Amino acid sequence: MTLDYALIWAGLIAFAVLAYVVLDGFDLGVGILFPWAKTEQERDLMMNSVAPVWDGNETWLVLGGGGLFAVFPLAYSIIMPALYAPIIIMLLALVFRGVAFEFRWKSKNSKYIWDWAFAGGSLVATFAQGVALGALVQGIQISGRAYAGGWWDWLSPFSLLTGLALVIGYALLGATWLVLKTDGAVEQRAKRATAGLGIVMLGLIVLVSAISPFLHEHFMQKWFAWPAMLFVAPVPLLVLVCAFCLFRGLQVNRPLMSFLAVQGLFVLSYIGLVISFFPYMVPSSVTLWQAAAPDTSLKFLLVGAVFLIPIILAYSAYAYWVFRGKVGPTHDYH
After folding, report:
1. pLDDT digits (tens, 9 = 90+) for 270-290
2. Mind listing the domains of the chain with CATH numbers?
3. pTM of the model as a whole
4. What is the dihedral of CA 18, 21, 27, 29, to 10 degrees?
5. Are 139 and 70 in contact (CB under 8 A)?
6. Helix H segments across 139-181?
């Protein structure tokens, strides 16, 4: 049996991107919510809740981006020029955010500067990710095998909408994480934020889902043509189940249920996106097989991935296990 290495690698990169979203999403969300902390002690508590795991979470971003460059070079050469601006903005914001984790604890007289670097970096990075996603979904202009659009093609009402949606979504993830990991005033405000953000998030999911099929004929056929719609029909139903679990978890004081329900909303939204895209890397233009490197390269890289991905999963799981439970005011991870 001949293995489809391009399809295998598409699955691995899709998994890496999803892992980044569901893991780094909540610590970016904590940064987005950072300004509403009332005291320095509350801000310390919020930052300490993600300090042990945030850098490991970003490993998946490196794997996804590096994998795209190595495995699907044609897609990389088309997507990156189209999205240079939001990608560069995202990376610079992540740099400020990462530096803030270290400098905030050392610069006592200018701690407020690094508070804003952490909050601003989280907000800007998240919005830039959402804008880049929206620009990719709405389509990239191609001529031959190269990007043929303009500098500002990534900026549109739809990409701004997806940027806003991701900010709300990550903030919701961050709020449920704080309910899970903190006590006292931070936990109570996070509960109230979860309820409001959850309603807004569901509305944005409906809005983006209603617009997306009309962006490409290919999307329309996946969602509304028979029998392809049989594969996507369960997704909206499962979204309703996750929404119920989100608010039910708040009612019965089961924070893990709420946190996992929001993760489920992201996973289902991502599955819907993958179904819409397949088999294209660049919607309606370049398939994953057209974009893939030669099979010999894919085989060679797959050997490394077979060892690397389990190691990343193992040390990530170990970190979450070691730092499980509530974060107390005396905990300090800097």
Report:
1. 988 888 888 888 877 888 888
2. 5-322 (1.20.1630)
3. 0.91
4. -150
5. no
6. 157-181
